[in-house]
Specification:
Blueprint: E1 3-7, H1 13-31, H2 42-50, E2 54-60, E3 63-72, E4 79-87, H3 96-106, E5 113-119, H4 123-131, E6 135-142, E7 148-155, E8 158-161, H5 167-184, H6 201-209, E9 213-219, E10 222-231, E11 236-244, H7 253-267, E12 272-278, H8 282-290, E13 294-300, E14 307-314
Parallel strand pairs: 4-5, 11-12
Antiparallel strand pairs: 1-2, 2-3, 3-4, 5-7, 6-7, 8-9, 9-10, 10-11, 12-14, 13-14
Helix pairs in contact: 1-2
Length: about 325
């Protein structure tokens, strides 16, 4: 079955509305969502056209099979909402929706994040979205006593605040990144069990609960970089666990993460950022120096087989 999309116009509103009503009728009967516009006539689509949203017709073997609508985020650049997608009931479960979503995403090469919601409990719908790379964020919105909407997203690139479902992927980045440090300085679970390359997932879970600002950098739909910032009071913030996958280094990702941390601390009204490194790691010390940090001291701990070096960056710099 050959699937393709065509941009819709107001002239298509009646045909699209007719398919949409049949496609969503069973959901309406299940959830009694009286506020839903999905069962409304052509005025719903006319309103979308007037607001400048993008509506597409979905064709399967040259026959009109359904439609989808895309809404650009009003609050964030390069973010798009897959606001709705509907397929004629007799053509559902044929892979048309999955193909249409992938074709639609290609029309927005600048997109860094896609998001949508779907009724909780509609496993077939959710499975379709997940097969296209969307992930359940865990966020829920209750519409009525029968209908709860689950929020899904697909992060393609850029820096975003970390959500709970991403912690495992972030931990993998941390482990792989700091494993090279452990190797270079002979650190093992025996001589340095608390080194960052060995931390368990509970560390990140606790940090999230404590309210640390945790952010990740994605490339091609996967997380390749990570860092976090904690409020140490009196205008001081500490940078933790800045990590980039070894195979993704030397692309400027580390600088992007550190620049993001600086902007966030400024936004929060902070005065400086501090961090600790292995003092003997002269390459890393040089890199932080090049990024505006100043070395201000060292300290030796009995439980660590290396000296900790301290650096700071002040916001007025």
């Amino acid at each position: 079955m050959e699937i393709h999309l065509e941009k819709a116009t107001t002239a298509d509103a009646k045909d699209l509305a007719s398919i949409q009503i049949e496609a969503f009728r069973s959901l309406y009967e299940t959830y009694s969502d009286g506020q839903s516009t999905f069962l409304s006539e052509t005025e719903d689509f006319v309103r979308w056209f007037e607001c400048g949203h993008d509506v597409y017709k979905i064709f399967a073997d040259a026959a009109l099979a359904g439609g989808l609508a895309v809404m650009k985020s009003k609050t964030a650049a390069n973010e798009y909402c897959l606001a709705r997608i509907f397929i004629s009931p007799e053509l559902q479960r044929c892979g048309i929706a999955k193909s249409a979503i992938k074709l639609c995403e290609k029309l927005y090469p600048d997109a860094k994040r896609w998001y949508l919601d779907c009724p909780e409990g509609q496993d077939a719908n959710k499975c379709c979205f997940e097969s296209c790379g969307y992930v359940d964020t865990g966020s829920r919105r209750v519409t009525n006593d029968k209908l709860t909407l689950a929020a899904l997203e697909k992060i393609i690139g850029g820096i975003y605040h970390v959500k709970a479902y991403q912690l495992s992927a972030c931990l993998e980045v941390i482990h792989k990144s700091f494993a090279t440090v452990a190797r270079d300085f002979g650190l093992t679970r025996e001589n340095c069990p608390k080194h960052t390359s060995f931390i368990p997932i509970e560390y990140l879970q606790n940090q999230m609960q404590w309210g640390w600002y945790m952010f990740s950098l994605s490339e091609g739909g996967r997380i390749v970089g990570y860092a976090s910032v904690s409020d140490e009071k009196n205008g001081v913030y500490e940078l933790h666990n800045l990590a980039v996958l070894p195979e993704c280094r030397h692309k400027g990702y580390g600088r992007l993460l550190i620049d993001h941390a600086k902007e966030k601390v400024k936004e929060l009204g902070g005065q400086k950022i501090t961090l600790g490194i292995i003092e003997e790691n002269t390459v890393l010390k040089k890199w932080y120096t090049e990024n505006g940090f100043v070395h201000y001291g060292t300290r030796k701990f009995d439980h660590l087989p290396f000296t900790v070096g301290y650096m700071e960056w002040r916001c007025e710099q």
